[in-house]
Write a structure and sequence with these properties.
353 residues, alpha/beta, Rossmann fold, 2 domains, 7-stranded parallel sheet, 6-stranded parallel sheet
């Protein structure tokens, strides 16, 4: 029997520090290892990107401007999997089945009403065409069903895989002062609420705060203004960091802080748990679902109240018997084996295999 071809759009592999790029990188490493009797794989890659993924994977390079409007040169496959909703900005090749993965509907809070409408029209069109719609949390699934006409389709929740980095090599960043510190990471966007962490640090003069991530967004100015106004001068916006530096910061931080109000999954919180670290999160979006009772939840995003909660709860973390192992065990629930096996089953179901 000739194998059926599944195309995975992993064009974000060229930006491994982003969430979508991290997923693309893991897909590129793990799907080639799948030795399936009836499926083979095809990767859609960035323009000019070259790599050898082995005999089980074919590749096509995207021509950015051309494939925004035309499908010529794109392969004909049995299943086309758009692995995130941003990929709807370009054409698809011919396929018998279409799988659409939606990570979040953050445009509802990040965009003005005109752009919201544009996003909704594009996404509704893709949902109409899709043979299967998946998402990465029950929270996002509920949002999708509330916002869109699903035409009788059910949204399937497949939680993200989180690669285990707890044993990876580390490198101490040059900005680390030697003081105990709190750590936060993510794109420097308003939904992350990083300015609240800065304002909170006046209550922790003996600690530093390192906020790391892509800071080319306009919100970085807001965070820097709060840093400049902080009397204790113990908060730092570092920009992007390397994978080795990220491991060092997870491994040595006193706590991981994540007051975000716009997450589809919240991968950094799970990564921090891999190191057995105390994690503080907001009660918004999917974070309580993904972190369960293994993270402390700020009931109020007021900097003074947030600081009070950290002071009250942090000393108890290491004293509670079994707490560290419970946190690590929860992080181990989100494996790429589970994630990819769920998609393999979905592909086969759609193809009647």
């Amino acid at each position: 029997m000739e194998k059926k071809t599944v195309l995975l759009d992993i064009n974000e592999i060229g930006n491994p520090t982003s969430g979508f790029g991290n997923i693309a990188k893991n897909y590129s490493e793990l799907y080639p290892k799948v030795n399936d009797e009836v499926l083979k794989f095809h990767f859609l890659l960035p323009q000019g990107y070259e790599a050898d993924f082995g005999d089980n994977v074919e590749t096509t390079n995207l021509r950015r401007k051309f494939h925004k409007h035309f499908s010529k040169g794109l392969p004909q496959v049995d299943i086309w999997h758009s692995t995130n909703q941003q990929q709807l900005k370009r054409r698809r090749g011919k396929c018998s089945k279409f799988v659409l993965t939606i990570h979040d509907l953050n445009y509802l809070t990040e965009k003005n009403w005109i752009r919201q409408l544009k996003h909704k029209i594009v996404l509704q069109h893709a949902i109409n065409q899709a043979d299967a719609v998946t998402c990465i949390s029950k929270f996002v699934g509920k949002q999708i069903e509330e916002q869109f006409n699903m035409k009788g389709k059910k949204v399937k929740v497949i939680y993200n895989g989180v690669g285990d980095i707890s044993s990876d090599p580390e490198k101490k960043p040059a900005f680390a002062s030697g003081k105990p510190f709190f750590f936060a990471i993510g794109q420097i966007r308003p939904k992350k609420n990083f300015h609240l962490l800065v304002d909170m640090m006046k209550h922790f003069p003996d600690y530093d705060l390192y906020i790391c991530g892509d800071d080319h967004f306009a919100y970085n100015t807001v965070v820097r203004e709060h840093i400049a106004a902080l009397p204790t001068k113990n908060a730092f916006l570092t920009g992007k960091i390397s994978a080795e530096e990220k491991v060092w910061l997870y491994r040595h931080c006193e706590a991981f802080l994540f007051p975000s109000q716009g997450e589809g999954f919240g991968l950094p919180a799970i990564e921090a748990m891999q190191f057995g670290k105390p994690v503080f999160i907001s009660t918004y979006t999917c974070l309580p679902e993904i972190c369960d009772d293994c993270a402390y939840q700020w009931q109020s995003l007021d900097p003074d109240a947030m600081a009070e909660e950290i002071k009250r709860l942090l000393p108890d973390f290491s004293k509670e018997e079994g707490r560290v192992e419970k946190v690590k065990a929860h992080a181990r629930e989100f494996t790429y084996d589970k994630h990819i096996n769920a998609y393999i089953s979905l592909y086969k179901e759609l193809l009647g295999l």
